[in-house]
Amino acid sequence: FSFSLFLLWLVLQVLNAIQELELEGKKAAAVFITSPTYHGICSNLNDISELCRSRKIPLIVDEAHGAHLGFHSELPSSALQQGADLTVQSTHKVLCSLTQSSMLHMSGDIVDKEKISRCLQTLQTTSPSYLLLASLDAARAQLGESPEIVFNQAIALANEAKCLLKRISGISVLENSSFPNFPAIDPLRLTVGFWELGLSGYEADEILYRDFGIVCELVGNKSITYALNLGTCRDHVHRLLSGIKHLAATCSSIKQPKDRLVTDHPPFDDIIMSLIPRDAFFANKRKVTVKESIGKVSGELICPYPPGIPVLIPGEVITEIAVDYLLHLIGKGADISGASDPLLSSIVICDVQ
């Protein structure tokens, strides 16, 4: 089993980060965790929230992909159920509200609710969309009475799909049993690996979208992640299975070339910010070749899509690792959003010393 890195936060990592600040005479303003990830990987928020509470540090969770968590016995617990102080959920991603609608939840007494309210009043429009608000209320009402019944079909279809996919030669499926260190995985996320077929995720996605009309949630170098939700029906799952079976039947299993072993993990380990994004926005800029850009300060946001996670942002020092990663993705069929030159033959840099 060869899935590349799927990020989750461990309590020791959080403790080390807090202690590093304490050694400098500083206190963390908050701990910010993304859980679940795009792939449905959930961090152990129980332990992290206990650590934060012992130091009176707010725990803020980006739970964009987890608005449904905690509503069914087969789903992982939600961030609030595990002690988070603030959690932001993109309700529209899995539940049945309209696109762009989301919720901010608060719990406990560490966070000043009056201050949060004032911040929202400063940032939000005074003319909200009542269509979006009504759809949020409808999504809430849908789960208000029998959430177990509401999710039964989607979870049953997800489990069935994983079971049938595992029978297809050359296909791998991300499961909790394969990664016992993961606290939990959202059963409604279906991550499928195609490397044994000699295909990158981008190549497989192009075929499945073109020939079968299958739309994914996330494409990686070695895998594709699909999102099932309350609107998923048996016909959708059958179309996905038919497409992947066809793909496996038409692609011979070959030894994975070395250039396909590039990780799905973006190069976020050695980020160096030379300018804050505001200063980078107002700085003088010029275009240079991609080779000349290495070591310079990025003047634009460069973001592979899907999923839309930036690899370079304005003000960040451009590294050779980041450039190689982006060019590799382009070579495998990824689309680049935000860049003035989507093929990255040139990059806009900040004209600074």
From TrEMBL:
InterPro entries: Orn/Lys/Arg_deCO2ase_major_dom, Orn_Lys_Arg_decarboxylase-I, Prn/Lys/Arg_de-COase_C, Prn/Lys/Arg_de-COase_C_sf, PyrdxlP-dep_Trfase, PyrdxlP-dep_Trfase_major. Pfam families: OKR_DC_1, OKR_DC_1_C. Residues 26-174 form the Orn/Lys/Arg decarboxylases family 1 pyridoxal-P attachment site domain. Residues 284-329 form the Orn/Lys/Arg decarboxylase C-terminal domain. Keywords: Decarboxylase, Lyase, Pyridoxal phosphate, Signal. GO terms for molecular function: carboxy-lyase activity. Its cofactor is pyridoxal 5'-phosphate. Residues 1-17 form the signal peptide. Belongs to the Orn/Lys/Arg decarboxylase class-I family. PANTHER family: ARGININE DECARBOXYLASE. This is Arginine decarboxylase-like. It comes from Trifolium medium.
